[in-house]
């Protein structure tokens, strides 16, 4: 059984500023609606940002999103 390690900084996909902000809110435990309201966006836009983040890091769930946020210092 091998543990998944955080990518090294050289291998870390770049996130747009709004993607980083969205990831920070979700990792803090906020819902899509709470994140959308705080950022002045629709929930559809929050969902689109998170889909792009998941695709960039090849992750599938919120726990992995939180792990990525921690590894990025968010």
From TrEMBL:
Signal peptide: none annotated. Residues 8-73 form the HTH luxR-type domain. The keyword Transmembrane does not apply. This is Helix-turn-helix transcriptional regulator. Keywords: DNA-binding, Transcription, Transcription regulation. It holds the Pfam family GerE. It comes from Streptomyces musisoli. PROSITE patterns: HTH_LUXR_2 (PS50043).
């Amino acid at each position: 059984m091998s543990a998944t390690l955080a990518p090294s900084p050289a291998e870390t996909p770049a996130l747009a500023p709004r993607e980083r902000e969205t990831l920070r809110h979700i990792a803090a435990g906020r819902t899509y609606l709470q994140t959308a309201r705080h950022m002045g966006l629709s929930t559809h836009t929050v969902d689109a940002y998170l889909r792009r983040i998941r695709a960039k890091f090849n992750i599938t769930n919120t726990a992995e999103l939180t792990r990525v946020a921690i590894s990025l210092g968010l």
